[in-house]
Write a structure and sequence with these properties.
The protein has about 475 residues and is an all-alpha fold. The protein has 17 helices and no strands. The protein has helices spanning about 5-20, 25-45, 50-70, 75-110, 130-145, 155-160, 175-180, 190-225, 230-260, 280-285, 290-300, 310-325, 330-350, 370-390, 395-405, 420-435, 450-470.
Length: about 475
Amino acid sequence: MLFSSIEFVIFLPIVFFIYWFITYKNLTIQNTFILLASYFFYGWWDYRFLFLIAFSSLVDFWVGIGIDKSNNIFQKKFYLFSSLFVNLSFLCFFKYFNFFTENFIRAFTFLGHPISDPFFLKIAVPVGISFYTFQTISYSIDVYKGKLKPTRDIVAFFSFVSFFPQLVAGPIERATNLLPQFQKKRLFEYNTAVDGLRQILWGLFIKTVIGDNLAIYVNEIFENYLQYSGSVLFIGIVFFAFQIYCDFSGYSEIAIGTSKLFGFNIIRNFAFPYFSRDIAEFWRRWHISLSSWFRDYVYIPLGGSRVSTIKKIRNVFIIFIVSGFWHGANWTFIIWGALNALYFLPLMVLNINRKNKDIVSEGRFFPRIKELFQIGATFILILFAWVFFRSESVVHALQYINHMLSWSFFQYPNYAIKNSYIFYISCIIVVDWLQREKQHALQFDHTTCIPKPVRWMIYYGIIFSILLFKGKKQEFIYFQF
């Protein structure tokens, strides 16, 4: 069920009404209803994979209690490794089986021993498996480390794992934040719900009007890149940068806004990342829930930055390459991760990777020239890496880059581009810049100087844009991950 589909438009008000007007008196009944609604939402794609998420939830519920009851470190480790083994086995089988099989065959062929009858499975990747797997693993690790007491409320735990707003594409929640919210009574807060509706509205706008429309151009350019000039290919990758941003941050905005309607507060996932002044700041602002997950559960356990320079370099490459591989079973994602590691290394070696932790040009309307240059340089590096992320193969990416950087880069683009899309991209840049000190683009509070009638004009303008100019319905890009 897509957030932008008519099915969700029908589903959400029904769930909202039952949640607040029928089940609100009893917390267990309310959580049970959320669980059933979440399973219905997930099963809309393929009900067969409900067993998978239920089994994963059951394993980690059992692991948490087992760790708490254990009397020695060996028993605790047994339970933790049981969680890691089950969850990562499912993830590797469904997502990476054919990747490893294909590369195994290629290796033997290269060594002169071709395999005549390769064994491939047509495996459908369960939607959201990378997200809820990391969510349940983090619960087991936090219980093992003593950061969290395990719950014995199985309904609350299953609801935490399958909470439908963020189930299939994040944000990747931590049990320390979300699980306690299922264990206490929620109260409806009007102002929070209204803010959530604004967030949903903005998420729908950037997804359907900008992301879905840009997808048409991006697909056309990447599929026929040899037919276009380097200038068109550059426009294509710029369009993809905004497509994936609008698509993924749009999903996150809708997820966070929907959660607010039900009295939940989930983690922010994007913080206007294209205004970053270096690549380290970009990764603190892009897909925040995943970046922080790898930091806390991979980078820090490896020693983080409190080790020798060689080991710090090793740790950086590990988390970025693993992050790339998390995105998909393709060498393009691994190279994309390695490129970001290379971008990050000079900042780490010079110990300036945490230099830009403030908001760019905070308290000022215009950026300084130096900041503008830093933002532009960082964006160019990001664009170069996005080529690998979007391409179907490494050869495709290298050919795309080679053709883009030819003399035709200076030619007038031989491709008809609608001015409306340039306008919408400009709008999102302006809105993001004006709201960069807020939590989201349509956050209006007591400090906002925009009159109420103007705000309502903005809301209606966005609604009409969604109705009149939305693109052909596209699945969210991150559903494939």
